[in-house]
Amino acid sequence: MFDELLQTMALSQEANEAPTGSPMMSVEEDNDDVKRQETYPMVLPILPLKNTVLFPGVIIPITVGREKSIRAVQKAFDSHKLIGVLAQRDSNNDSVAAPDLFEVGTIARILRLLKMPDGTTTAVLQGRKRFRSMQVISDDPYMISEILPLEYEPRDPDNELNFNALTASIRDKAQRVVELTPHLPNEANVMLRNINNDVFLLNFITSNMNVKTPIKQKILEINDLAEKATTLLQHLDSELQHLELRGEIEQKVRGEVDKQQRDYLLNQQLKTIQEELGGNSQEQELNALAERGKKKKWTEAVAKQFQKELTKVRRMPAQVAEYSIMLNYLETLLDLPWNEVTEDNFDLKTVQQTLDQDHFGLEDVKSRILEHLAVLKLKGDMKAPILLLVGPPGVGKTSLGKSVANALHRKFIRMSLGGLHDESEIRGHRKTYIGAMPGRIVQSMRKAGSSNPVFILDEIDKVGTSFRGDPSSALLEVLDPEQNSTFYDNYLETEYDLSKVLFIATANSLETIQPALLDRMEIIRLAGYSVEEKIEIAKQHLVPERRIEHGLAEKDIRLTNDVIAQVIQDYTRESGVRSLDRRLAAVMRYVAKKVAFEEKYRPNIMKSDLKEILGAVRFSKENYENNGIAGVAIGLAWTQVGGDILFIETSLSKGKGNLTLTGNLGAVMKESATTALSFIKSHIEELGIDDNLLENKDIHIHVPEGAIPKDGPSAGVTMLTALVSAFKKQPVKPHLAMTGEITLRGKVLPVGGIKEKVLAAKRAGCTDIILCRENQKDIAEITAAYLKGIHFHYVDKMLDVVQIALS
Fold first, then answer.
1. N or C: at which end does the chain have fewer Cβ atoms within 10 angstroms?
2. Residue 584, number of CB atoms within 10 A of its CB
């Protein structure tokens, strides 16, 4: 009791229409028995209160947060400053009507009204007189009710002595409570002694008493003062007995004890107090868990498991260590979403627009998501696909998952697997271990609160192994559509359904992913962006976002396509757009500085300005050089940061037909050169080459930029062309590039990375490209606008390559 007397007048930041400080004594001790009679309007605005009851003569500050309540308080303060205060029956209800309020309350005078920075209003209320709400006549813009002021029943003169004795006993017990409460100051007793009005004494003690709101409301409604005093005395007796019993227990257990004994005795003390008060918090907590369990949509097997564990906990003393472990287990089961799903957005056009707005390109992924949604819309139920997005860093694999979640109106979870080397991170620990917890899959589902989120498994190619197990093997069950409906977590010890989860895994490479895991996922490859695509991404996303981020207006800076292309080619070398984003941010900072210093500058950024803004050129691109020298051919190469052209140089010198290869070439590339030379030797007549050259000349093939490792079969046709050009002393056709694998039988085989290679050839100034006929399908996937000005030659035989290149 009287704990509120120590509270500060700090304003509450949590509850609406809740007390923000301790109830205080009125200076005038206003109450129902004041001799000075006041007149009150018959109609008053109504202010609902949570968790408290206002009594006549008591002053309390409250924070008003609900719009209707703010309007009611403001209206009353602007007029007669009187308002009717009624306590709510249910403090958790934010939207109240007349049936939600008690009928008896207190007429209050608004002494002060303060506007707080967070938009709430703080009112200081002084209780004046009890009233009964007769009829609510309006509920908008705030509640208005007809009221009937209440009077106490006249006191019987013959019972005056009994009433005086009751009030004296109440005062003594209240003072005794203050004395037995160590943290209450002696000033509280001084305050009690200075209250001369018996009715106000009852109101003040009841207002400060540590009992629930319904009990306070019951005491407020009593019209017989003797009955009111008797009821108050009963509750004071109960609280005084509680304090005295606590004092006795403290005396018994006081002394020197070690930590374990002290913890045990304190728990026994708590249990004794709960039994004496007739309540048991442990039982109440378990009952609350049981009620939550009745509302869950789990399977019959899980329900039996929950009831079994709950029954076990009920028989377990709260002092044993296993009690908290079992309690955590039950709370985990209750917190997990069991068949609780969010509703998917089946407006497919809107979904497509959202995906297109968030990411440029990536059509394969978008198409796969839309196909899945279309089936769900038609069938109503389908196992979610498990997608694996493979591509270089910075192309938007992870951010695409968040965009998919937003488009589908699903919850989003991201779980990074990089460096994971413990199987229990996936499957969890058995709950018998100290500090046991579920695996990260179950933890993430608990956090999401939904059974069908979009779940990103980031960097799945970087999962490690150790003596603690292989996490990638544990993922086999998670990512198998036939098994993940019965996923088993060691902590849960029961099956959990993951079949509704849309798993999207990301990886930079497939080489480190074990084959069994790879077989369970639908692989979608994301190629690096071309320069043309990077320009569109910069225009649609990066430039507007960075401009807003740096506080610039559209008129402050303008970047043309040519300038953005120059930034991409001279200052970045990547598949994605992260470095481009950083370079554009540097340009924005340059302009922001000019604007902030009010310096004159040119909003239209030119190519010539880039050196001043970004410094010297960091990367130089390989351009076509028409030197007319025989023995030089242009190949096309794919790299992790896009495509590039490759010069292959061949020279002949006196010797015995030896072949020398330089330029840091890999084994496959060396084999291509050997294959090309063997083909030439076996087809001298068709190619028109003097056979004496092969016997009397040494051959040297070099690929420039020797510090960079090079490998792959796609340079086969280029090496063939360079060798034939050197032997025949005939230069290769100008502006011609080529790519393709060769065989000893004279066939040209298809290769990969066609999109990147073709765009690299166009940037370098090539106008003709030789490709394997089977690669024609890859050209169809490239945007037609990017192919303007390029002529393709599709071949099946190596002799056709020589004929086109040397014609």
1. C
2. 22
HEC assignment per residue over 736-801: EEECCEECCCCEEECCCCHHHHHHHHHHHCCCEEEEEHHHHHHHCCCCHHHHCCCEEEEECEHHHH
Following CA atoms 756, 757, 761, 763 in sequence, which dihedral angle do they give, to the nearest 10 degrees?
20
Q: Each residue of 70-126: pLDDT tens digit?
A: 888 998 898 888 999 999 988 888 888 888 899 999 999 999 988 877 777 889 999
Reduced to 3 states (helix: H, G, I; strand: E, B; else coil), residue 104 is strand
Distance CA 42, CA 473 (A): 77
CB 445 within 8 A of CB 487: no
User: In angstroms, how far apart are the furthest CA atoms of the chain?
Assistant: 144
Asked if 127 contacts 57 with a C-beta cutoff of 8 angstroms, the reply is: yes
Q: Are 46 and 86 in contact (CB under 8 A)?
A: yes
Give the burial class of 554: count Cβ atoms within 10 A of its Cβ; 0-12 exposed, 13-18 middle, 19 or more buried: exposed
Degrees (nearest 5) of the Cα angle 126, 56, 47?
60
- The CA-CA-CA angle for residues 76, 78, 79, to 5°, reads 65
> Could you tell me which of 428, 474, 455 has the C-alpha nearest to residue 328?
428
Residue whose tokens read 């589902």: 445
Strands 412-416, 454-458: pairing is parallel
The answer to whether the beta carbons of residues 388 and 457 sit under 8 Å apart is no
Give the tens place of pLDDT for each residue, 338-352.
888 888 777 788 888
What's the CA gap between 643 and 638, in Å, rounded? 5
Mean pLDDT of 590-618: 85
Give the active site residues.
714, 757
Query: If you average pLDDT over each of 276-285, 470-479, 618-627, which comes out highest?
Result: 470-479
**Residue 35 DSSP symbol:** S
